[in-house]
Design goal:
Length: 244
């Protein structure tokens, strides 16, 4: 019998309450049973954006799983006294799945990033996970009306499809094309492709442990500051919600 996954609502976005191990095992199981799956890895920015853009909110709430990619979501869940088990990032999920897929000899399609970033990311997958086959790849700067990418994915039937177009485009792309596919786990993974390519470093464990990965990223990529204004706004919205 299928177990129902508990959902925790954070500013009306329903997060799956699963540990990292539970979630990645579940996704791997869905890959093996060829169960088509749409995953959103949501941080406070995405939650705020969804609450300001109803059409995006409609799209992401159609996903099979929305997982908490960001310590801000975990803290918010605690503040609202509806704790979530654990942070589940797009990057960590990608790596764990590639490890499992390497053992099972499954295939991946990588969509997104600049041409040279994509190339390097694919090289990393090929060298670190030699049994994972690359079903195909395409850079992330294509004409939105171009249906050949989706057709290629439909034809090559990858088990995992990493969609790295940044939000909201990656979720929008998955949502708009999802009906075309028969199978595959589709995840919007954003900057994961840059980390795989080695062009952006993941924050060292120290920064992750003290829950300041966001600060590390800001120091490394100061151009992100404007986007990060969403974080204090998110915290204010959570405090308001708590008082209700
Ligand atoms: N990207 C892309 N097409 C676009 C916009 C972004 O392929 O139209 C890529 C971008 O090159 C980068 C990745 O998406 O490799 C993540 O972008 P960003 O850092 O903006 O996303 P986030 O980490 O916030 O999800």
């Amino acid at each position: 019998m299928k177990k129902l996954v508990e959902r925790v609502s954070i500013l009306s976005i329903p997060f799956a309450n699963l540990s990292f191990d539970e979630f990645t095992s579940l996704l791997f199981e869905r890959m093996q049973t060829k169960t088509k799956t749409f995953v959103v890895t949501a941080n406070p920015e995405i939650v705020m954006y969804a609450n300001a853009h109803e059409s995006y909110k409609q799209m992401i709430t159609q996903a099979d799983f929305i997982v908490p990619d960001g310590i801000g979501i975990i803290k918010a869940a605690n503040t609202l006294k509806t704790p979530l088990k654990e942070r589940v990032t797009g990057y960590d999920t990608t790596i764990r799945l590639l490890e499992k897929m390497n053992e099972a000899k499954l295939s991946v399609y990588v969509l997104g990033g600049k041409e040279e970033v994509l190339e390097k990311a694919v090289q990393t997958i090929e060298s670190d996970y030699p049994n994972v086959s690359i079903a195909g790849c395409h850079h992330g700067y294509f004409d939105w009306e171009d249906k050949t990418i989706a057709a290629d994915i439909k034809k090559t039937k990858p088990d995992l499809i990493l969609v790295a177009l940044g939000f909201p485009r990656q979720e929008q792309w998955i949502y708009e094309h999802f009906d075309m596919f028969d199978r595959g786990v589709f995840i919007g993974v954003g900057g994961t492709i840059d980390v795989l390519a080695g062009t952006v470093e993941r924050a060292p464990m120290f920064w992750q442990k003290i829950h300041l990965e966001w600060l590390y990223r800001l120091l490394k990529q100061p151009s992100r500051w404007k986007r990060m204004l969403a974080i204090p706004k998110f915290m204010m919205a959570i405090n308001k919600e708590k008082k209700r």
